Amino acid sequence: GIAVIGGYVYRGEAINALEGNYIFGDWSLGFDEGDGTVFSSSPTNGDWDFWELAIANKENQRLGLFITGMGQDADRELYILTTENSGPSGDTGKIFKIVPPGSNNLE
Question: InterPro entries, per this entry (predicted)?
């Protein structure tokens, strides 16, 4: 990837499997096309293993956008901020809420 987009330790109640995991992103795999990735990480035997979170209802289970930030609401649920542009311009921004598999996806 290009740049780590800081994240949060998941403390929400919607996804028990992520409880206590650090959720973070990668801006994109390249500069030409948005291909941001969302990861989950947790300490295992002293090492921090991490894996990619699949994005439902998206091609190849990937966002297909540049990740610009992350946020947390009052219930400690997490959001991914994205854009179609590699720089700070335009009006293509979208916000995705991290929800359990099988939930209605919010955009």
Answer: 6-blade_b-propeller_TolB-like
Reported as a single tens digit per residue, the pLDDT across 43-66 is 877 888 899 998 877 777 788 999
Burial 94-105 (b: 16+ CB within 10 A, else e): eebbbbeeeeee
Query: In a 10 Å sphere around its CB, with 0-12 CB exposed, 13-18 middle and 19+ buried, how is residue 85 labelled?
Result: middle
Kindly tell me the sign of the dihedral angle through the C-alpha atoms of 101, 9, 61, 50. Answer: negative
Joined tokens for residue 20: 């206590």
β-strand partners of 80: 70, 96
Tens digits of residue pLDDT in 79-105 = 999 999 988 888 999 999 998 877 665
Using alpha carbons, select from 6, 14, 13 the residue that is nearest to residue 101. 14
**10 CB-contact burial (10 Å; exposed 0-12 / middle 13-18 / buried 19+):** buried
- pTM of this structure: 0.86
Q: Where are the domains of the chain?
A: 4-97
